[in-house]
Amino acid sequence: MENTQVVKEDVNTELQGTLIDKYEDDYHKALKSIETDVKDLIVNGSEMKGLMAFNDNILKIVEVHDALMNFYNIIFNNQEVLKKFNSQRLRQLGYEPFALYKQLKEMHISGASDDILERMTMTNLKKAGFDKSHWYIKARILSEIEYLIETLRILIEPEFIPLVESVTNSEEQNASDRYVPSNVKIAVWRRDNGKCVGCGSQEKLEYDHIIPVSKGGSNTERNIQLLCEKCNRQKSARIE
After folding, report:
1. Structural domain total, the chain
2. Which terminus of the chain is less hemmed in, N or C, by CB atoms within 10 Å?
3. Are 185 and 208 in contact (CB under 8 A)?
4. Looking at 133, 155, 177, which one is the last position of a domain?
């Protein structure tokens, strides 16, 4: 009975929405927290707590930016595939995805310093209607995030969830026993920043049950983690 209650709590406390919706929510919450929570802590004399909260929020914004950029980079580098097969989502977007700072860096533009690439990126973003400023965070980072959110919301299908949960020989359970709700998968992906919690790899990732289902593990966020194929197989060998 206790496990059932935990499942309900974990699922119900998760925000409903797409992967991009949830990254957007993280982004706006972090920005708001800087202007409210951080300010209140410092004004009331808790400077160290305020600075730690500020740092946490900055890291969250950077995580959101990096995660969105990883998805965008795949789309940008392979947009010819979308054109070849007449992507409806690309047509709905109404414009071709353009190079942001990361893509410009990868192009190795001759003679272009980081400052020049920053200016080129901001020029393109401003032309597209994205010009977000902040008293601390780079305008380019925030403008890119807002461009990425709007663009990826159209180009990524709402039901998209990164990866599928792994299946090991030690977990011969019915599919219904191992079903991980989509909102839990999205929450785990965001929490683990799309990286293996064991070695930090972003290659061949799998959703892994920390405590195997066969040993009573649940399908809740607290019992699911991202592992690369190698780390997951090593873990399975230890369990077996």
Report:
1. 2
2. N
3. no
4. 155
**Does 22 reside within a domain?**
yes
pLDDT tens for the chain, 240 residues long, are: 334 333 333 433 344 588 999 999 999 999 999 999 999 999 999 999 999 999 999 999 999 999 999 999 999 999 999 999 999 999 999 899 999 999 999 999 888 999 999 999 999 999 999 999 999 999 999 999 999 999 999 999 998 887 755 544 444 444 445 677 888 888 888 888 888 999 998 888 889 999 988 888 888 999 999 999 999 888 876 765
Q: Which structure tokens are listed for 227?
A: 């592992």
Domain ranges, residue 217 = 2-7+161-239
Instruction: Please indicate, yes or no, whether residues 63 and 150 belong to a single structural domain of this protein.
Output: yes
**pTM score, whole prediction:** 0.77
Locate tokens 């990361």: which residue? 102
The C-alpha R_g of the chain, in whole angstroms, comes to 21
d(CA 180, CA 183): 8
The answer to whether the beta carbons of residues 214 and 45 sit under 8 Å apart is: no
Neighbours of 84 (CB within 10 A): 9
CATH of the domain at 184: 1.10.30
